[in-house]
Design goal:
The protein is α/β, with parallel strands linked by helices. It is built from 17 helices and 15 strands.
């Protein structure tokens, strides 16, 4: 089967490469010629474990192509996926301009039946707008060419996207014709050998499923962060609370980890878009507005903990930061808690020295010379007044605490992901702060407040 995927961002590139891995002939299209040239030269613009090798293998095998010219392949493909960005507008709604431009381009170029599938995350009703854009261009051309639209939202987790695509929990496909259903069934048939579920729905339901799923996960995170904040006030340990409620089969343990807030390209944008969709329909999503409020406040919690440790005297402090990406196994810093924390530290007059295994270049692009860039995790803590952990990369899990203590000016650790053992840090002579647990103050440590 020949398909085209318009957009070589995270969703488009992963999806196109994985479809090629399963035997489809895939042409990935992007208006950014420099990106297309780089991909054709073997340079993958995003960090995702396993993706580089898969792109190279399928490009060499002649199943994966990259071009900036949709017209060059449109007559040879049966399905065109729209996988372009839908960034939030100022009012929180999803910007559909790129999606509709692709639809209009297909309407201008098509000469035979095509199934046009939206894979970008879009609000309910977008497929109708896509259909209208195609029909409008056909009318301008004075032609009537049969086509279908469908919705096939992605559920990829950054850092595990290739694995998620190749072995998904489920595939959701919204269609409105048997012809479209048959094409999508053919496309996904190789995956059926793994016995995963393909859920066919109507198109509005498919569009809503994506937003509802992300909103539910965001809600669980904000709920646990709210519980964690209350635990600190009343003297409970959020880790014990999490284990206690996670064993309830009605609740489960996933996405119950407290921390310094969620980020990335999906949860913040999708929650805002769903709230705006509801508002446009005359309905107030009160729970999701609270989810947003809790998350925005939570992103500043580690700075507030540092203020408490240093009694508000932050000017001139040297702060080491471990982790910049919004989660491990990605270089994505969109809406990352690190940006909020670092911004608050800089505004308070601190010097910030950062380290992340893969997101250093992205940080340089975003923050330039406003921060110092460490060579490694140990270089970051030299002469630091405090160490702040923001992203739970595996290499940060078992550091040499005695080496770190000798390197630091003051042995203060603020753990934004609750990955360290409080007794171990206390025995090592650190003042240790985490989320939802009591402050651990080593008895022989007496200068953090000065």
């Amino acid at each position: 089967m020949n398909i085209a995927i318009v957009g070589t961002g995270y969703v488009g590139l992963v999806s196109g490469t994985c479809f090629a891995e399963m035997g489809a002939v895939v042409t990935c299209v992007d208006v950014d010629k420099a990106k297309v040239d780089a991909l054709n030269a073997g340079s993958v613009p995003i960090y995702e474990p396993g993706l580089d090798e898969m792109v190279a293998r399928n490009h060499k095998a002649g199943r994966l192509f990259f071009t900036d010219d949709l017209a060059s392949c449109i007559d040879s493909v049966e399905i065109v996926f729209i996988a372009v960005g839908t960034p939030p507008d100022e009012d929180g709604s999803a910007d559909l301009s790129h999606v509709l431009e692709v639809a209009a381009s297909v309407g201008r170029m098509m000469s035979r039946y095509i199934l046009l599938v939206t894979k970008s995350t879009v609000p309910v009703g977008t497929s109708e707008k896509v259909k209208a854009a195609v029909l409008r261009e056909q009318e301008l051309r004075g032609v009537t060419i049969d086509f279908d639209v469908a919705s096939n939202p992605e559920f990829l987790k950054e850092g595990a996207a290739v694995k998620d695509f190749m072995s998904p929990d489920r595939v959701v496909v919204g269609v409105e014709s048997e012809r479209a259903k048959e094409l999508m069934t053919r496309l996904y048939r190789p995956f059926l050998l793994n016995n995963f579920r393909v859920i066919f729905t109507d198109i509005p339901s498919a569009e809503m499923i994506k937003y509802a799923a992300n909103a539910m996960l965001a809600t669980r995170i904000s709920f646990m962060n709210d519980i964690a904040n209350l635990c600190e006030i009343v003297g409970a340990d959020v880790n014990m609370v999490r284990r206690g409620i996670g064993t309830d089969s009605r609740i489960g343990s996933k996405f119950l980890y407290p921390g310094c807030g969620y980020g990335g390209s999906c949860f913040p944008k999708d929650v805002k878009a769903l709230v705006k969709t509801a508002a446009d329909a005359g309905y107030d999503m009160r729970v999701l507005r609270a989810v947003e409020d809790v998350n925005e406040r939570q992103k500043g919690i580690l700075f507030r903990k540092l203020e408490e440790v240093f009694h508000g005297r932050m000017q001139g402090r040297r702060i080491a930061v471990w982790g910049l990406a919004f989660k491990p196994e990605t270089d994505d810093m969109r809406e990352a808690p690190s940006l909020v924390t670092i911004g608050l530290l800089l505004d308070a007059g601190c010097t910030v020295r950062v380290y992340d295994p893969v997101a250093m270049d992205e940080c340089r692009r975003r923050l330039g010379d406003r921060v110092e860039y460490a060579l490694d995790m140990y270089d970051a803590v030299n002469d630091a007044d405090a160490l702040v952990l923001l992203t739970e990369w595996k290499q940060f899990r078992m550091p040499g605490w005695q080496v770190i203590k000798k390197a630091m000016h003051r042995p203060v650790v603020v753990d934004g992901r609750n990955i360290y053992d409080s007794e171990e840090l206390e025995n090592a002579g650190f003042l240790y702060c985490s989320v939802g647990r009591r402050l651990v103050r080593a008895g022989r440590f007496n200068d953090a407040e000065q």
